[in-house]
Amino acid sequence: MKIENLCMSFGTQVIFNNVSFQINNNDKVGIIGVNGAGKSTLFNILLGNLTPDSGNITLDTKINLGYLPQVIMEDASSEDETVFDYLLEGRPIKKLKEELTNFYDIIANTHNEHELKKYYKKINRINELLEYYDEYNAESILLKIISGMQIDDSLLDLKLKNISGGQKSKVAFAKLLYSNPEIMLLDEPTNHLDLDTKDYIINYLKNYHGIILVISHDVELLNAVTKKTLYVDKIKHNVEIYNGNYEKYMKIKSERDLAKQRLYEKQQREEEKLKGIIAKYIRGNEKKANIAKDRIKKLEKLETQKIELEKKNKYTKFNMKINRPSYSIPIKCNNLTFGYNEENLLYEDLNFDLTRGEKLLVVGENGIGKTTLLRLIMGYLTPIEGSIEITDKTDIAYYAQEHEILDNSKTILENFANFGLADYEIRRMLGSFLFSGDDIFKKVEVLSPGERSRVALAKISLTGANTLLLDEPTNHLDPMTQLIISDTFKNYEGTMLVVSHNLDFVDNLNINRMLLLPSGRITYYDRDIVMHYEMLEEENK
Fold first, then answer.
1. How far is CA 493 from each of CA 248, 490, 498, rounded to the nearest angstrom?
2. CB count, 10 Å around CB of 181?
3. Which band of pLDDT confidence, cut at 50, 70 and 90, is reported for residue 541?
4. Which of 29, 150, 254, 419 has the maximum number of C-beta atoms within 10 A of its C-beta?
5. Which residues pair with 390 in a beta bridge?
């Protein structure tokens, strides 16, 4: 894969300016950079979803390229498709065998030698593909992936449209692995994975024979899997490749920055010295004037070689203030029973309450109903039995995984129309979330998932809500922004119900208690329980 002189802009916003780099066979490359730098845009260019303004992309058209996006979109054509049928589509073996049978039927009735050669060539190509997809061992390979990804057998017969967002992500990843692409493009692949599945993925990718390009803020994944690091610079609009994983990249970059800082300081001292001599001798006698002229030449030369320090990336800054305190029990769940059908209940007779000011973490494996619980509280779903009491002084703001609180068809600015603020007030607020100038006129649908996350955070920051429902709020955000929002939520004076797989984020929140699903057991916060909740749930059934 070779990229030469790539240029890409959206209107007046430059994303890439004359970018060139090369990826070699079996390279495993971590792609890093702040949100909005152009990481996902690069993938969309490689996939052919976006056409660059200029530049060349050299990629073998016969290459089997697989892509895992950050957000798994619903496919309208697969309304009644089961999870297992969806997984089987990863290798088009059935379709290829049907084509093979069809060509054999055709050649049995073809006597033209030229036509026969053409069909034999197509047959050979299909046989090559069947061999590549290992048709005789394919089902066994798929079952191993299903087991490794911890996709429960009961899930396989469910319709794809009826499983949770986290389950969809896991199933889509399993399908990608099964498809055995020669190049894998992974965009935040561990966002929705539990710890055991993540361990399986890391081991799988480490032993994968092919090119991997992975966009991730997951330092553990990057250090374990990648051998090269491609840094996308949002300020300079270019990229730079470093040999080594994320840890090695940070070390090399730190050493380079330190050396550059020292050289910059040396040049500053030299510049001040030359300017001082020039000022002293420029109006003196001929000898002194000549000294001044010599120093002017040296100063001009220094200016051409002057080091420029990198501008520091800006990060989100915001506060979460409440307009009024809630009652002592803002939310209470009474004998809650829910399932998408009565034969497969997610939980039964679930009871818990939130006390004012506490932070409660919801713990459970993918598909167990964590997001569903938040949606029940919001009234988006109706319980089969039981009730959820929300007192009249409970003001709720909901941060959803899929950013449902945003209107994708509207611009960023239009999404804040109902807050009763003047445009300049909205602009000032959005500036703290790194949206400035014409950025605010972009439609939400064209934003990267990280940018949409910042818009959603901006919306809930304006609500003044005294109760927050947070569903994986750190997904799609770079490590520094994750740290900033964890500090913000740690100091939040209201009540929080949190769903998160991000242990560092959770550790920093000062969580009070945990709700274990599906058992409904309440326990004090324990990091070990969070890490091993699947095993503990088995013990508590």
1. 39, 8, 15
2. 19
3. very low
4. 29
5. 331
The pTM is what? 0.66
Encoded amino acid at 161, one letter: K
Q: Is 489 exposed, middle or buried (0-12, 13-18, 19+ CB in 10 A)?
A: buried
Report the percent of the chain where pLDDT is more than 90: 43
Angle between helices 165-179 and 138-148 (to 10 degrees): 140
- Side-chain half-sphere of 44: how many Cα atoms within 13 Å? 15
pLDDT tops 60 at residue 251: yes
CA quadruple 458, 459, 462, 464: dihedral sign? negative
CA distance linking residue 466 with residue 496, whole number of Å: 9
Average pLDDT, the chain: 87
Q: What is the dihedral of CA 374, 525, 466, 318, to 10 degrees?
A: -100
Instruction: Check if the beta carbon of residue 468 is closer than 8 Å to that of residue 330.
Output: no
pLDDT given at position 538: 38
Q: Which helix or strand (DSSP H or E) is residue 42 part of? A: helix 39-46
Query: How far is 38 from 356, CA to CA, in rounded Å?
Result: 41
User: Which pLDDT score is estimated for 532?
Assistant: 58
Size (the chain), residues: 541
* Predicted local confidence at residue 334, as pLDDT: 94
- The domains of the chain, with CATH numbers, are 1-63+182-276 (3.40.50.300), 331-540 (3.40.50.300)
How many helices and strands in the chain, by DSSP H and E? 18, 18
Q: What is the pLDDT of residue 78?
A: 58
Q: Which residues contact 96 (CB under 8 A, 6 or more apart)?
A: 126, 129, 130, 133
* Lowest mean pLDDT, pick from 17-31, 55-69, 466-480: 55-69
